[in-house]
Specification:
Blueprint: H1 2-13, H2 40-49, H3 52-70, E1 105-110, E2 113-118, H4 119-122, H5 141-177, H6 179-194, H7 197-207, H8 212-238, H9 242-249, H10 254-262, H11 267-290, H12 302-310, H13 321-345
Antiparallel strand pairs: 1-2
Helix pairs in contact: 2-13, 3-5, 3-13, 5-6, 5-8, 5-11, 5-12, 5-13, 7-8, 8-11, 9-10, 11-12, 11-13, 12-13
Length: 352
């Protein structure tokens, strides 16, 4: 009777028991690897590597950093060595003497027309090679470009790291305690942010000697505002969450909650903001050096190289090309890398 009832139920449902066959424990029943569970950082790595522009930007930055530290040692010239008889030599690379470019030829426009000159041949320096050419004082532009890149990267990275520590601590403390503490700290940050950066740097130049430390100090004074705002916003979003309340119930102190509970949960936003801050610091340093408020000679940075080459741009345009290209490439790649990291680190970006 029970078999008859079961068959009637199956017939009413539209299928019979022998319509299905158990597959058993074989490979076809395994979980699809495309949908397998992944940890957070493994998923971040997968999403980042899937972003071709971000991977390209990271590779370009690493290549530039490599040449910034190795490039000055690839030639016999120093970044400050002058050789006036060999000034304004066009770019010349071994093996390119019979090619249209990098052969030492330079086209000059004069009142009577244009002409091609080759300083190497005119002065009998056939065994001399300046890969990026030489400047108005006979200094090797290749060595100075990579040395300037090293200085600019050093200033930007140090300034951003200091700003990250200051701004992160400032924003987290302000958002956690709230009330009067938050109000006073935010008014102070608004006052600091309201003072133009150029005014601050100019005043510092009157008090301190121009140099790398002065530029880093000037960047440190104002660049921490952005990081503090992001840290404060994340703190206001997380400080009432269950895991924070649980830590407070178990007797954790305020600073323990801030730096052990909340800080690890905003590491993605910190990394992203840091990547966005580096090109801003590089551009600020280049701007200050371009207007004459940067590092003193004979030291050089990308901004000072552009400033020096700008004076001879109409006659020897090749001198300004390398530092401008490196500066533009650095800023573009850091911004593209920051975008890629933001998409990889933010789980909300998955469905966008």
């Amino acid at each position: 009777m029970s078999d008859f009832v079961e068959n009637e139920n199956e017939a009413a449902a539209g299928f019979y028991g022998d319509d299905f066959q158990l597959r058993g424990d074989n490979e076809q029943t395994k979980i699809d690897t495309n949908f397998a569970s992944m940890g957070y950082w493994k998923e971040v790595r997968f999403r980042f590597l899937s972003n071709k522009s971000a991977v390209f930007s990271l590779a370009a930055i690493l290549i530039i950093m490599f040449f910034a530290f190795v490039g000055p040692k690839m030639t016999k010239y120093t970044y400050s060595g002058q050789n006036l008889p060999q000034k304004n030599y066009a770019p010349r690379i071994p093996g390119f003497d019979d090619t249209p470019i990098f052969n030492g030829n330079e086209k000059l426009n004069t009142t009577t027309g244009s002409k091609i000159i080759n300083g190497y041949k005119a002065n009998g320096d056939l065994n001399v090679y300046y890969w990026f050419g030489s400047d108005v004082l006979g200094r090797d532009i290749w060595t100075r470009t990579w040395m300037g890149t090293r200085v600019s990267l050093y200033i930007a990275v140090v300034a951003v790291l200091i700003d990250m520590i200051v701004g992160l601590s400032y924003g987290l403390i302000s958002g956690y305690f709230g009330g009067v503490v938050d109000s006073v700290m935010q008014r102070f940050s608004e006052i600091v942010n309201g003072i133009p950066r150029l005014v601050i740097v100019t005043l510092l130049m009157l008090i301190l000697k121009p140099g790398i430390a002065t530029i880093i100090f000037a960047l440190m004074i104002t660049e921490w505002i952005g990081m503090s705002r992001i840290a404060r916003a994340e703190m206001l979003n997380l400080k009432e969450r269950e895991f924070v309340l649980a830590s407070r119930t178990l007797g954790a102190g305020n600073f323990s909650i801030i730096f052990r509970e909340i800080l690890p949960n905003i590491i993605g936003q910190i990394i992203t903001q840091t990547m966005f801050s580096i090109p801003t610091a590089i551009f600020t340093e280049a701007f200050l050096s371009f207007v004459g408020l940067g590092i003193p000679v004979p030291q050089c940075s990308l901004g000072s190289l552009i400033s020096d080459a700008f004076n001879s741009f109409t006659t020897h345009s090749y001198q300004i090309v390398p530092p401008i290209l490196i500066l533009a490439l650095l800023m573009l790649c850091f911004n593209m890398l920051a975008d890629g990291l933001r998409e990889a680190l933010d789980p909300k970006m998955k469905e966008m």
